[in-house]
Amino acid sequence: MKNNGHALQLTYELPAVNKEATRKRVEEELETVRIYKRIGIIRREVGTVGRYEPRVHGSTNLVSKTTENTAVWNVDREQVMEKKVVMLDKALMCLNEMERELIRLRYLDTDDTYDYLVCGDLGVSERKYRRVKAQAMYKLALALRLEVLA
Q1: What sign does the dihedral 111-112-113-115 (CA atoms) show?
Q2: 143 with 94: CB under 8 angstroms?
């Protein structure tokens, strides 16, 4: 807070962000959502086979619930992924049209696209492409709470 004699002014500064680590986290999140939208979740399965021999071990009073644990993991993981998809959709709506199209073309539509191909598809120079991409990644990181502070 600053007091210049007349009025009290509040100044806020954005925290410094580690750009490289933040970009990696956003790209990983985009990749996770892209794969989930394409193939869904890969569910865990119970791989236990009953044995006929008695199992002698110490008295731990622990009960193994492999089927229950697997079912709970599958349901929880599905909910987490659905939440990620909804959050990403909301975050994409905060971007301007060019940023949204860039993210969609580069990260969400295909598996193996490259920056220079998307740059050509959008019809912009490489310099402008890099600038727009950096802005979009920064906005997504803040919206999705993926920023890594420096």
Answers
A1: positive
A2: yes
pTM of the entire predicted model: 0.74
The SS3 assignment for 9 reads strand
**Confidence (pLDDT) at 43:** 78
**Burial 112-149, CB ≥16 within 10 A → b, else e:** eeeeeebbeebebeeeebeebbeebbbbbbbbbebbee
Task: Give the three-class secondary structure for 96.
Answer: coil
For residue range 102-131, list pLDDT tens digits in order. Answer: 999 999 988 788 899 999 999 999 999 999
With cut-offs at 50, 70 and 90, classify the pLDDT of residue 82. very high
Phi, psi of 138 (to 5 degrees): -65, -45
What is the per-residue pLDDT across 89-106, written as a single tens digit (0 to 9) for each? 999 999 999 999 999 999
Contact by Cβ (8 Å): 21, 138: no
Alpha-carbon gap, residue 76 to 36, rounded angstroms = 14
